[in-house]
Structure prediction request, 277 residues.
Amino acid sequence: MNLIGKIFVVIIVVLSLLFMGLAMAVYSTHKNWLAAVNDQKDEINMLRSEHEQNTSKYRLAESNFRLEIDSAEQQVRKLESERVALVARNDVIQTEVNELKQANRDATAAVSSTQENNSQLARENVGLQTEIISAQEASDAAFAKTLVATSQLHDAAVKLNQEIERNAQLTEQVAGMTTVMRRHDLNPATRPGDVKPRVDGYVSDITRRAGSESIEVTIGADDGLKRGHTLEVYRGGKYLGRAEVLQTTPDRAVARIIPSLKKWRIQEGDRVATRLN
Prediction:
């Protein structure tokens, strides 16, 4: 057998195997078409039943859906009404908000003004408190002064009563002294400085100059002599003249002889007296 024959043999074997495989495949796919038809009918009936059930469900669902649509439409209409009402309410609220904003601005301005007024009032309050404290201190000081003045007034009233009693006593004494002075030919209106004390002494020295004569006596300021007093000069029972006191020391005095009242020559050792009995 040549090469070509061998090739054909191989081809025939391969084709045989191929046809055998096809035959087995055809056999394996062979069906009972009557049973298949019956099965198809049963399946169709089942599908029809399911279709009818699904149709009923669809219709029920459609009815429910329409009801839900109607309800939804009613709800939409209700919501639309509510939306319109809310829009109107929103406009009202917006107006109120604008008014409130304006009121808030006015209130803010009022608060600022009030705060400024409060600050001013606080400053004034501090000043008033300071004034109140000062007034209270002044009042306390015045009250203390009042107490002191009341005490002093009471003491003054007591002293006044004492002075009134003393004045009554002094008035009585003055009346008695006036009576005594008038009995002794003395003027009650004479001032104490004008009353010459009743003292006497001696002429201790004489100074004579042209046209004037002065004497020094042994009585002075300690005895009550003052400048301007007069001294009477005498010797025994003889009146010699009068001298006017020019200056005084505690125990001495210098007096000028009054020429018009000089009666006799004055010598050292002559007596002098402020008054003669």
Summary: The chain has two helices and six strands. The chain has a mean pLDDT of 82.
